[in-house]
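I'll show a typical protein example:
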Amino acid sequence: MDTDKLQQWQYASNFIDTSVETITGSMTKLTKKMDSAQEEEKKNAEKWQEHLDKIARGEKSTWEEATTARDAFVKLGVSWKDYNGNLRDNEEVFMDLIDALGNKECSNLSADLTKRINTAKSDWVMNGFTDADWDAFQNDLKAYGLDKYLEIHQKYLDAYFAG
């Protein structure tokens, strides 16, 4: 991770109450999971071919798909590879995972928070803002459920990276 990215994550960590070490650690784990998913897919393709070959020879064969990192990506609808079969940028996959996990439980919270954020941005562009406006905005976000929203995302990220 280059210095610019690290600075961006450091800046973001100030707003989401998560340390930059946690974020970069999660990115490292994600990269390993992506590599694992890629390897698992290759192994599954080989197993599938063996299965088809056995059937073609008239032998009995069963297909068992393991629950693996690859399967977790598939269940969430997140692609870890591009159209050429190469691993995607881990930061893009990280954001897609956050979106996918959030959509499971957070769609209403997300809509409410997004509406409040967009309203504030519009108002601030037109009228500017003070420290008191910023404090009120942060309190509004908490009232809308920002802490719950982040808690849900963190729970899914922790569960994902624990497995």
